[in-house]
Amino acid sequence: MIARPSASSAGRLRPRRSCLAVPGSNPRFLEKAQGLPADQVFLDLEDACAPLAKEAARHAIVHALNSGDWSGKTRVVRVNDWTTHWTYRDVITVVEGAGPNLDCIMLPKVQDAQQIVALDLLLTQIEQTMGFTVGRIGIEAQIENAKGLVNVDEIAAASPRMETIVFGPADFMASINMKSLVVGEQPPGYPADAYHYILMRILMAARAHDLQAIDGPYLQIKNVDGFRAVAGRAAALGFDGKWVLHPGQIDAANEVFSPSQEDFDHAELILDAYAWSTSEAGGKKGSAMLGDEMIDEASRKMALVIAGKGRAAGLHRTSKFEPPTG
Prior knowledge:
- By secondary structure, the chain is α/β, with parallel strands linked by helices.
- It has helices at residues 9-12, 27-33, 54-67, 87-98, 113-130, 146-150, 152-156, 169-175, 196-208, 224-237, 250-256, 261-277, 297-312; strands spanning 18-23, 40-44, 74-78, 104-107, 138-143, 162-167, 212-215, 241-244, 288-290, 293-295.
- The chain has an 8-stranded parallel beta barrel with strand order 1-2-3-4-5-6-7-8, surrounded by 6 helices. Strands 9-10 form a two-stranded antiparallel ribbon.
- Strand 9 (288-290) and strand 10 (293-295) form a beta hairpin.
- Helix 3 (54-67) runs parallel beside helix 4 (87-98), helix 4 packs parallel to helix 5 and helix 12 packs across helix 13.
- The longest helix is centred in the middle third of the chain and has 18 residues, at 113-130.
- The protein starts with 8 loop residues before the first helix and ends in a 14-residue tail after the last helix.
């Protein structure tokens, strides 16, 4: 039996505010992406590559991963889904050729846990054969149809390599016959948010298994205000990031999925105030006042989330906690 060591928690918590899609068959885009400020770049062998271009794209991606400068970025390759005849060769070529310079494999159109198990097993065999660290390469699962959403809890738990669950809106909309041709926008005739249940379902599965949740693309690439609105919906729910299809969307994604300076400072003050109040010097109290706000252990947990995201985004404090003197 092949041993599968657990993926590191650090890998699961990589910054992914902006996840840039890059066609694997376009050498110019592969080079340009290296200099863009996206947290994650995924080099695409699926929808962005025409069938006749897929084989050459595999080798172009291997070359780009091995020779390019991807400093500060999470490096991901999206392979084709298991219903095609390309998947196994995508994985073997890319991982054997560039495994040490690859962070994750993204599997699209995931419908059940066994598809994740199969990818995990293939990755493990390649890593063992090539002498790579077994279990280091993570998996991102893209949910793109009704069956995948129904099985999302089992998918999230299918492998210790799992790092993210990604919403794929275009294929999902088609799979449920949603009455809209504009990806990510609300369908006409429905008075509420048609995506709320889908997003929350993905988010709950992700959080139950300590994974990140990533929203899918917004195809109107010149409409940055529209992108901000859709990204803001996902960020408000608690998503960690969103796909970007164009460099013009990157700054907006990084901003929307980062705490404001005010919220970051407030979170850090809560952590300091709670630590002081529970200490010997602070009277070993279970709650405290921060200005007019009462804080307790639940406040600390909420503040940890905001402070962690702010630190990951490179924010620095502009305020300092002063213990009360009276």
